[in-house]
Specification:
single chain; mainly alpha
Amino acid sequence: GITERERETLTLVARGLSNEEIAAELFVTHATVRTYVSRLLTKLQARSRAQLVVAAYESGLVRA
């Protein structure tokens, strides 16, 4: 499972936001966002941000 903060990060990644934009949205540092994205890549066995976006849509976390 992923944490609530990772879920929020995944939603923002799926919306196309950059790490810097996500950091501003979540009121965290750019480095923290990089950590969240890295953990998501590992936990979801994804190789890229694009695969994270696919996972977010397939799980119903975000809708078209």
